[in-house]
């Protein structure tokens, strides 16, 4: 699939609405994950935290690639990029929400550690379907992921595209520097994140958010 993310994307609409009663520990009757309407007012703080974090993460990723490739040959940068030592942002003072994970995932991953779980896959499949159907592409997706007996996990997803800076390692394998292609195969033998075109949809950035335990 060679669909591209448009420069202007629209918010998700028409999905399940949740009210304040959903802010509770999950039980065995809950579905493992559901999409929720990101426009729902009760999710305002969760969505804002997720979008702020994905914006920062995306900018940090791009900055790292540019800075590293400016001083390091691409072949030597293959195993070093993508913020492998990224530290989670601390909870904001007074906020009841905390970030437990940030993740990049795709239907075509390079590193198996970034492979989607079932909830991630549902989000990826939704964006893929929108692109294939020619529908407006969601700017943000929000999921509620449940584990029995545990607080709800809220996932905020943002689509990402293959930018020009990505092409040296993610572009057409036949036009890639053969030394880079060999290093990719050596470092990531199951690599599927190749043969992208510039601005083609690559996958999702995901932020996982949970409610902080009440202070005793």
Distance between termini? 52 Å
DSSP, total strands: 5
Mean pLDDT equals 84
- Radius of gyration, in Å, reads 18 Å
Gross morphology is: globular
The assembly state of the depicted protein chains is single chain
**Structural class by sheet pairing and helices:** alpha+beta
The H-and-E topology, N to C, reads as: EHHEHEEHHE
Strand arrangement across the biggest beta sheet? 1-3-4-5-2
Low-confidence parts lasting 5 or more residues at pLDDT below 50? Answer: 5-22
Q: In DSSP terms, counting alpha (H) and pi (I) runs of 4 or more, how many helices? A: 5
Structure description:
It is a single chain. The protein has 5 helices and 5 strands. The protein has 216 residues and is an alpha+beta fold. It has a 5-stranded antiparallel beta sheet, with helices on both faces. The longest helix has 28 residues. It is globular and about 55 Å long. About 8% of the residues have low confidence.
